[in-house]
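seq as requested:
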Amino acid sequence: MRASLATMIGCLSLASGGAQAAEGHLADAVNRNVLRVCATPANLPYSNEKGEGFENKIAQLVADQLKRKGVENTWFPQGTGFVRKTLSEKRCDLIMGTVQADEFTLNTNHYYRTTYALVTKHGSGLEGITSIMDPKLKGKKVGIQAGAPAADYVAKAGLMPNAKSYLFIVDTRYQNPMQDMVADVRSGEIDVGILWGPHAGWYANHGEGEKLSIQPMLEEKLPGLPRLEYRITMGVRANETAWKHEINDVIAKRQGDIDKILLDYGVPIIDEDNKLITEPRMPKGTN
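struct tokens:
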């Protein structure tokens, strides 16, 4: 799971001064010439320095819609201190892929909703499983990141004795437990990998070896266990509500284009009824 999301649930180029825009009695620090984005390096499928991640693509879409000259990234490793050392220090104006506001951020409307997914080999007989509680998983060896919300479901299903544990909070410049888990599915070291949806969709289709099957976990939340699905938003500084509304307008107008980017990267998108979205959505008010 990416930096800000992972931090929230247990693990999300300095620019010259921007133009000052009035917001009530407060002034924001948003640069009106370029879109300054806080991003994590070497963190595919989200972002990297080459601009190859889906958050890089969505940030460029936002910049284009706002008629900015381009995107200017402030790179900072994921984990504790990400928001404080970037957004709150006014080194950038927008964080991609946040989940919940904290003392440093204000959240936009969500631009996608996703969940954990099961990664299996084609022909394994496990491709259609959508729940960790499925009886077909009894006796199977599953891979799970220790501390992830889905780990509680693995324990509830009685699968922990045969589970292989992977790290959850890492600096992806040096370690990649998500990639390691998927490689273990390919090699047969484990039967099923349980990963956050964007990671599952990306690594199942990348890396050495065969492409794998991914099945979003669409099961209902079990009593006493954490939720598995989350609404993903963008984050701005806590006092910059006008800037938040600008980003909300972009999301509303360009939702279909955002969906296309996410679907191209294999991100499982689900609606509010936990139904899988397979085609880009049209903006509200269009036919």
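The helical segments are 3-8, 54-65, 82-85, 149-156, 177-187, 197-203, 241-253, 255-264.
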